[in-house]
Amino acid sequence: MNGVALERVLNFKYLGHIVTESLKDDEDMERERRALAVRCNMLARRFARCTPKVKITLFKAFCQSLYTCTLWVRYTQRAYNALKVQYNHAFRMLLGLPRYCSASGMFADAHIDGFAAIIRKRVASIMRRVRGSGNSILKVISDKPCCAIFAHWVHVHVHVPGVSSVRSRY
Asked: Which branch of life, at top level (predicted)?
């Protein structure tokens, strides 16, 4: 560019999200999985003697953020499952629950959202904000149902994770 050679990279971090040359999201999901493990280990150590109610509040605040999850469009089922398992394991560990207790049961008992519900809520929130925006670039996404990211957002709401999906093509 203007006589200066540009360095080519396979991936880079932009605003906390890992963007890869192939535009796949597995690396960013792995980044989030590791960050979730670190946050939960810290909570489990520092707040081991707190009541379950306090631990649940901490889990909601520190482990349900899933930063940039609404940007995940092209990923493997393996990456998705690894993150979901880490999310479930984090909650079990924080509350001292048995390793093989039912994930849906433990979340229902605690009255908090499971992994798939968190993803759906984040996607619903960004869809609402994109559709309501006056930004001309965002209008391109919201006005064209064939747009890849919009199609994925809709898919998240009508798809049961673990069953044959659009993601498996990538």
From this structure: Eukaryota
CB 11 within 8 A of CB 24: no
pTM to 2 decimals? Answer: 0.82
**19 forms bridges with which residues in the sheet?**
12
Instruction: Give me the residue label for tokens 């207790």.
Output: 101
Q: Where are the domains of the chain?
A: 11-165
Measure CA 113 to chain center: 13
End-to-end CA distance of the chain: 32
Which residue carries 């203007």 as its tokens? 2
DSSP string, the chain: -TT-PPPP-SEEEETTEEEETT---HHHHHHHHHHHHHHHHHHHHHTTTS-HHHHHHHHHHHHS--TTGGG--S--HHHHHHHHHHHHHHHHHHHT--TTS-HHHHHHHHT---HHHHHHHHHHHHHHHHHH---HHHHHHHH-TTSHHHHHHHHHHH--TTSS-GGGG-
Q: What is the model's pLDDT at position 167?
A: 43
User: Could you list the mean pLDDT of each consecutive 10-residue stretch along the chain, which spans 170 residues?
Assistant: 88 91 93 96 96 97 91 92 97 94 94 94 88 86 75 72 43
